[in-house]
Amino acid sequence: xxxxxxxxxxxxxxxxxxxxxxxxxxxxxxxxxxxxxxxxxxxxxxxxxxxxxxxxxxxxxxxxxxxxxxxxxxxxxxxxxxxxxxxxxxxxxxxxxxxxxxxxxxxxxxxxxxxxxxxxxxxxxxxxxxxxxxxxxxxxxxxxxxxxxxxxxxxxxxxxxxxxxxxxxxxxxxxxxxxxxxxxxxxxxxxxxxxxxxxxxxxxxxxxxxxxxxxxxxxxxxxxxxxxxxxxxxxxxxxxxxxxx
Length: 245
Hints:
Layout: H1 2-31, E1 55-56, E2 58-59, E3 62-63, E4 70-72, E5 78-80, E6 88-94, H2 102-115, E7 122-128, H3 136-146, E8 153-156, H4 160-170, E9 175-177, E10 185-187, E11 190-194, E12 200-202, E13 214-215, H5 233-244
Parallel strand pairs: 6-7, 7-8
Antiparallel strand pairs: 1-12, 2-3, 4-5, 6-11, 9-10, 11-12, 11-13
């Protein structure tokens, strides 16, 4: 009988310790609505219900907002930054004849498009850096080729100088015409994430510094590139969902 009593005492002690340590933590997570959904679903996007913890990009103490722009899309419509008000959207700079990173970038964006196809407040702004060649008709064909169906995804063309100024100064995403480069142009393979109010948002590193952009030129399906760098489409999806929610 004494051995059995000791067993009961031991079990009771373990339960008591578990309650002291873990139950307050669980209650705290519930109170803060910090329970992660869909953690076990294959292919789903994980997110928490917390208000977005994404950083604002600040310059001289002011939050960086997308500059005003006005360009023509693949349907021949004039699109401005005002058309994206109330929407979360991703920005890229590309060109249709790019033989290197642009196909990967746009297949990655299509992956994001298809993941969030139930949201009508998600958009994309793809600015061509070769507007002389990338006419409305060329961009329309490109959209069909890549399976672009999101009504808020605009492939934009217009004045070359204005586009380059928007890229290099508005977003600090490097863009240049370079005859020696593959396809005749150089550009960043990064994506910028914009919130519903037009501010650039991002994650922070372990020191609290903004990471600013997301790598767009690493294939989401391959997970890592030849240099061992990890894809960032997965975390971009998570952050998009934070802003959408």
